[in-house]
Amino acid sequence: MIFTQSERAELISQIKSLRDDNKQYQSIVDEKIKEIEPLQQALGKLRSTNNSGSGRGGGGLCASEEELNNLVCQSQNSV
Fold it and tell me: What's this model's pTM, rounded to 2 decimal places?
């Protein structure tokens, strides 16, 4: 496909505009990733803390519905 000089200039202009848009989007994404990082770290700490007591009444995450039901029953009996 052969382009005229004006068509080529127009395409180059569009590409430059798209590159600028891409840089802006990437900048926003990078900023959001930085905002999310501390939240992910805190979530990881919560998960490791919860999982360390799981299954022993330590308030951890339940691995099954049965385990959750048993935990609920134990809690009701202790109250």
Answer: 0.52
- Give dist(CA 45, CA 52) in Å, integer: 11
Query: In whole angstroms, what is the distance from residue 37 CA to residue 43 CA?
Result: 10
**Torsion angles phi and psi, residue 62, rounded to 5:** -85, 140
pLDDT digits over 3-62, tens only? 999 999 999 999 999 999 999 999 999 999 999 999 998 888 877 776 665 444 455 677
Q: Report DSSP state, residue 1.
A: -
Q: What is the C-alpha R_g of the chain?
A: 27
Query: Contact at 8 Å (CB) between 55 and 69?
Result: no
User: What's the rounded Cα separation, in Å, for the pair 77 and 79?
Assistant: 5
